[in-house]
Amino acid sequence: MRGPLDGIRVLDLTSVVMGPYCTVMLADMGADVIKIENPSGDTTRYLGPAKHQGMGTLFLHLNRNKRSIALNLKSEEGIKEMRALVKEADIFVHTMRPKTVEKLGLSFKDLKPLNSRLIYCGMYGFSKEGPYGDKPAYDDIIQAASGIAAAQGQITGHPQYLATVLADKTAGLVGLSAILSALYHRERSGVGQEIEVPMFETMVSYTMMEHMYGETFSPAIGPMYYSRVTSPYRKPYKTKDGYIGVMIYNDKQWKAFFEVADRKDLAKDERFSNMASRTKHIDFVYRTIEEIMVDKTTKEWLSLLEAADIPCTNINTPDDLFEDPHLNAINFFETVHHPTEGEIRNMKFPVSFSETPVVVSRYAPNLGEHNEEVLKELHLHAKRK
């Protein structure tokens, strides 16, 4: 068996990062993911360094284990082939705006009569039920709209995007969990359904989970923002010769820290007495750690803190990860041979299954590489114009 989703067919009409990140997880777990692109291809094909046009680095990572077919969905023939694919599919995922998908005749109400077992997932910038429903959206827009950039601004002094496409990838993972839940329901009931995964609402929920804080109550009993994570002193700490990541969290860890830092006097300070008090005085707490950390080298601190079972780490750059002993031990980065792009670094799927192991059997496809293969399976190849 090729992964836990072996035998499940997915039609992937997604582009950029959110949708492809969701569907590459389905593909890695064994689903037959057919990536349906317009004749010019997913725009992500052209992002990042590339040896050949249309095979950029982001595309290589987001589209392994998929097959690619190019269809012109604005043509009668393209829609005919799309509808034939729908009849044989288990899951349909798209990232088109609601008006666009309706115009193409590919909404849930259009496709449900073709396949009552179809799980239909629309991944949008904003819920189609609200006034923002047909607005365009990308990761930066959602980080700005959902409060993430403003929350980060509590640290930087001005609104700031995070240095990763957080909204895209988080919404992709939420879409994955929703699709798998619907698949479980279908296996019990035999009935498919429509799923809507809006980035904006997903990321508002994600951000406000902790930052609603005192505004959780009505009337409010405290301020907005979880003070621990918005403190400007929450950061990698400078040591004698570099930086270190330290997270002293519970009472046991604080007691151990005062011992290894030779600061038993602080154990008597009521500001450190319990989690509630530490949170109330979080800036003072983090400033104190900052002052203590400069007394020793990174190596010295890692040795002391690890011996005391206090969470800590050296600060890795992305380059450092290629030499990380843990990642190397589990062969996380493996060099593989892509049929057209040569040697590439491939990342291991982060989750393991004891009975249905994940296998990377295909690397990111060239545009339309599998047109004849897929259409032959549907007995349509002879009818193509």
Question: What can you see in these coordinates?
Answer:
- There is one protein chain.
- This protein is of the alpha/beta class and 385 residues long.
- The chain has 2 domains: 9-206 and 349-383, 3-Layer(aba) Sandwich (Rossmann fold), CATH 3.40.50.10540; 237-314, formyl-coa transferase, domain 3 (2-Layer Sandwich).
- The protein contains 16 helices and 11 strands.
- The protein has a 6-stranded parallel sheet, sandwiched between helices. It has a 3-stranded antiparallel sheet with strand order 7-8-9, with helices on one face. It has a two-stranded antiparallel ribbon with strand order 10-11.
- Strand 7 and strand 8 (243-246) form a beta hairpin.
- The radius of gyration is 25 Å and the shape is globular.
- The two termini are 36 Å apart.
Mean pLDDT comes to 95
What is the topology, as strand order, of the major beta sheet? 3-2-1-4-5-6
Number of domains: 2
Order of helices and strands: EHEHEHEHHEHHHEHHEEHHHHEHEEH
- Strand share of the residues? 5-15%
Q: How many helices does DSSP assign?
A: 16
The CA-CA distance between the termini, in Å, is 36 Å
CATH superfamily of the largest domain: Crotonobetainyl-coa:carnitine coa-transferase, domain 1
Secondary-structure content class: alpha/beta
Rg on CA atoms, Å: 25 Å
Percent helix range: 25-40%
**CATH third-level topology of the largest domain:** Rossmann fold
CATH architecture annotation name of the largest domain: 3-Layer(aba) Sandwich
Question: Would you report the number of β strands?
Answer: 11
Low-confidence stretches: none
Largest sheet properties: 6 strands, parallel
What is the overall silhouette?
globular
